């Protein structure tokens, strides 16, 4: 991708925003090197990586990416036998620890919250170097200081050092506390010069203590003297310090050699941590600009849904739909220079570069982007002062360069094509250039204020006109792109609103031909019709979407209800039969005993009474339900017709036949549901008489659909409970018998809070965790009363 295009479309500014979200120098290095790719497979994989990281970030906002350092120089020195400093070794241990943390984090997320194969593959390549990490941490603390416990020799030397230093201080303390010391010392303190303990002695008493002078004050009145009495002790301390330093070097060399042994593993860890940090930087940036993953293709199709320019604040930017490469390959945006056209060009160009660089784009889900072999842009109004070129000449130099390389894999963006010269010649050049680029099969978006190009979109196959909407009332552009509607001049309307007299305006109108008036009126009508059509289409789509979702949920609930009803009925029947069987056995035993008693003349009981009791007991057994199977013989009793009332045997519900969809299948209306049912599963009830249809009264209620589940993962505790409260109310209004609340496993705080709220709700009958197939302890199933 040409550096010039990246500069013109301000891709470097996007990278600057991305750099704000890296966690380490490793991620920063990859972000700084980021450029769009022209390899389709590479772009798709990069987008998948970003999407996985975004998925993790949405659910687990805190990613353990701290403590990562670029340890590659340290590893290289250790391999060739160099000694690493304690701070460098601490960075090695910290990076190893960070790799272990991120590996565990990714693996746990994969088990609990979702499928992330690319991140899981990277985590699988991380080698856990616990032994190296522990060796370094046992010898060096977090501040990079070598610990006494690093070796027994070092512990012994430091103990000796502390003992010697204590003796020196005690000797010097006795000197400065003596009565004579008050007049001879500048201050009664012990200090250090050249790593040796000294005391501040006034100049005139320099010979009293003897010893060695190590320093003097700026005035020369105070000398820092090491008294002769402690010279030997200070010498001992220096000898111990030399041995201590030698032991520290030995320990550092040993740890450096151990680091060098794991050079391959450490370099792999650095590479993976750099990738992971970069992936999550892209995810954080996506969250910042409210971006989504685009669907990538190789056919040159662009379909942006509510796309925004990423460098304009979200609360200020206007989102636009842009499609290119399917029904048409060229968009010509016409109209006066009132703003918005250049922003549209840059939005499409920048979204293309971002998508090919693996970044998500600031547009809604379902947006589609193509991988282009090259992107060319002639945007701006800069004159080339060095070459003494005019605006027109500067544009033509760029266009000549573009025409040398453009092909069917190119995206070309022209801003104010043909501007800066005679209008007639400029328009002619613009048409000729567009024809040439079209002939080569490139995708093109061009802006122009020449009215001659309004007809271009009607006279060329694969070309469509577009314009940026202008609000006459506010005298400003709305920045909404209107595809299919050419731009119209607003000069007369603007002039009138600004106060120009009607007489002057009418005279100006007389100079404009009738054809021009008709074209402008036609364009105005097109704009209004398009706005109304878009509004109605959006409303229709929303209604259709809500209806489809409601139908699916009701059908699912109906099936679940009847399955559960059948199960409970069968279970109750089995239990009743078991109870009666037990009662029959007991009764038979009693009757047997009564017969025996009669035989023994102990009781007068008639045989017909015993038989009658036995019959009543048998009749008390529960009756088997009629089989729902409908025999072929029964089916032939009636020839079904649309409008017949029938019973659907599998649901035990009444419905109405709508139409026959195959030889043995009917579409049946059950309440508000429509479903296909086999004829053998139908039982004829009656054919209703034709009645006069009347409008059905409807009650306006909620215009949105209530889902059967609420996903709280990634929510803050307070927000989550607020959402649960509203969701339970909506579910009760929708008369749902049961709903699911997804809270994830996590720390358990959110799960506990949700369940405590549900237990205290007056309309909740019971709650339980989901079964194995329902999400386990990450989901709470709520049954309503």
UniProtKB/TrEMBL annotation:
Single GO MF descriptor: endonuclease activity
Coiled coil: 516-611
Signal peptide location: none
SMART domains: MUTSac, MUTSd, SMR
Record EC number: 3.1.-.-, 3.6.4.-
Keywords: ATP-binding, Coiled coil, DNA-binding, Endonuclease, Hydrolase, Nuclease, Nucleotide-binding, RNA-binding, rRNA-binding
One GO biological process term: mismatch repair
Binding site residues for ATP: 335-342
Superkingdom as given in the UniProt entry: Bacteria
Residue ranges of domain Smr in the record: 710-785
Family: Belongs to the DNA mismatch repair MutS family. MutS2 subfamily.
Function description: Endonuclease that is involved in the suppression of homologous recombination and thus may have a key role in the control of bacterial genetic diversity.
The protein's assembly and partners: Homodimer. Binds to stalled ribosomes, contacting rRNA.
Protein name, per record: Endonuclease MutS2
Organism: Niallia endozanthoxylica
